[in-house]
Protein 1
Amino acid sequence: MSDRVRLAVLPTPVLSAERLHAVLGGDPIWVKRDDLTGFGVAGNKARPLEFLLGDAVRRSRDLLVTGGGPDSNFVAAAALAARVTGLGCDVVTTVADGTPDGANLQLARAAGARLHRVAERREQIDSVVAELAADRTAQGYRPVAVPRGGSTPIGAVGFARAAHELADQVAGGLLPEPAVIAIAVGSGGSAAGLLAGLAATGLRSRLLGLSVSRPPAEADAVVRRLATGCAAVLGAPAPDPDRWEIRDARGPGFGVAGPTDRAAAVLALRTEGLLLDDTYGAKAFAGTVRRARTGGTGPVLYWHTGGLPSAVAHLGDTADAADPPDLGGDLP
Ligand SMILES: Cc1ncc(COP(=O)(O)O)c(C=O)c1O
């Protein structure tokens, strides 16, 4: 049993993307609307934070120390979650490059977080978070240090619960059992939690991870390690690695969507009104479309993870996109 604070409005809805299917053909696509978790603009990150903060409160912590890149959705959500549960918050981010703060850093500051622009590169952030937490302990605080993305075995419990939430929606007739569940993989906690949770549901769905920031082999190892840790936290059956596969969805680089990713995002916007960001959503959705268009496996569920601040900020980039969007030879 894990401690939890309530942040999200759950269950999130499921959507049958029929207009999208009419354009694409292939297998039917469903969407799990974790862009609508209802806590700030946290998207998928509301789920791990319920358990990270639950654990911090149970252990009488008074300060959340975490970090992320300047566009991190997790940082904004973590600062807000700390605030509403009565903890202070320190956020480590990369040194300012002269561009104005985006919506996520502004939200973190509005929630009262102290920003430390000290890391040279995103990869350094977790070690700086650990050092800062040690400094805060020496100053008399009772901090909890949380790595980028909130991807720890405890954080992953949020997505293990989401697997049960989905199983309940399938049992209730809200959607057919997905043959494939497709989700973006960044720091890996969301996919890991799903993998751990699926093992304890009756669902036979396969999980398809679309790695947006790490080489697939590296992301694969991270997800497996976190899923095993998450199952141990829950006392749940070990995750079944055979129901999981990972694909490379990095495209031109972190945060930069390729032409096919963009076209897939424009199609989602113009058929179903879905907003997808370049870093996670567009890439993961293009991978989902690729799988559904290949066809023949059954319903494909795209797990929409949010990313609304960045999606809204970059809408202008696609205003002149071809109509219908050109999915290119890159997709079947
Ligand atoms: C919008 C969005 N989607 C997907 C992800 C990836 O989730 P995870 O880091 O759990 O792999 C993130 C991570 O921050 C995110 O902000």
Note: The longest helix spans residues 153-171.
Protein 2
Amino acid sequence: MQVFINLLRNAIEAKTEKSLNVHIQTALHNNLVQIYVRDNGPGIPPTIIHHIFDPFFSTKQTGTGLGLSLSRKIIELHKGSMRVQSEFGRGTCFIIELPAYSKK
Ligand SMILES: Nc1ncnc2c1ncn2[C@@H]1O[C@H](COP(=O)(O)OP(=O)(O)OP(=O)(O)O)[C@@H](O)[C@H]1O
Ligand SMILES: [Mg+2]
């Protein structure tokens, strides 16, 4: 829940003049749950995209820069992974992969 709150808050904070759309898609592949959280915001410039998961990296006046680094840590503690894809100017997509366990 904390991870999704962080991602949704980031999407809202990145919003520009157009109306914000956040699309969440899930898929199950070979015991791996894939979750795509895609927004239609401004995207992330290629010059900073490699730093967004770094602790204390923020482009915001009052941001702590901890949201994404903590989110990735939470996912890793659940034996998953988290990455980003973004085309600057055309939105951002965070991809989370988690192992699926069948109910016994
Ligand atoms: N959906 C997004 N669209 C555009 N840029 C984003 C998006 N999500 C994250 N970013 C960029 O990644 C940076 C790091 O995000 P992170 O959530 O770690 O920190 P923050 O949002 O700046 O601060 P905090 O989460 O502590 O309020 C942001 O400052 C912003 O530049
Ligand atoms: Mg944040």
Note: The mean pLDDT is 95.
